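Good morning,

Both structures are done.
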Amino acid sequence: MRVISEGLAKITRPAIEAAWKRRGNGMRIILRDKEARGLALVVNPTGMRWECCYRPRGVNPITGQRWGNRTISLGTPASLSPEEARVAAARI
């Protein structure tokens, strides 16, 4: 699958609609939001979802190293507006 990662920009409804129109078979488009750290919109050929990437605080007590990055899905643009996704990402 080909991944197209676009730079940081404020994600808006028109940007979401434009990314949906540009999707294609075997292509994934990732839009990263510049207003909410770690928030991204992932557009696949069959659907879209909001994702939030973060790094947990602290260290692993066994290895003594920092925890790795974690990614969680917040929902879809149909269930969360860009503003609601930013608020959800800020809580994480």
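Second structure follows.
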Amino acid sequence: MPAPLEIILLAAGQSRRMLGSDKRLLTINGTPLLRHSASLYTNAGHHLTVVVGPDDHSAQSTLTGLPHTIAINPNPQTDHSTSARVGLSATPLTARGIVIALADQPLLTPDDISALIASFDQYQATKIIIPFWQSQRGNPIIFPASIAQIIRDNPAITPRRYIDARPDLCIEHLATDPHFTRDVDTPQDAAALLDPISPTNNPHFGVNR
């Protein structure tokens, strides 16, 4: 069995477009989305670091019982690149690959992640693997540990800037379904992808995040 990878799960967003609901705590098949996303990786034995905002006790309690490390982004109102850097700083970067993943992709399956990792290993863990559905770029993205180290050590470089600057190091993983490109940003997304939003299945309904 291949050695586990290091997963950085970005979960510090404030759900500004969700009209008062914390999307991470909305449920899919009765499980909070954040826990569902984290379990996708921990169940496969990967090492998980979850990036959350300061004093984010709701998110942390949702992960109780799962093997993980918490990293705090002190400025959760910033974009994903800040959370990615926080996660990289909290990760030992000793695995052959570092996965930067989002916490709001409910359609992803173990088979999707296994196929993505297989593409990474096909190139001997030397290329950045980016999933695509048709012409749309998705997530998560796998970085070789050596490249993750370069990004971590250079504050001016974000994962996106590195990808844009080095297309020669990037490989497109051509997905067979749209799972990599579907996430939850709006109530309409939640209605299509998650359980119905209500105070009954989401105790944090109405709480601004």
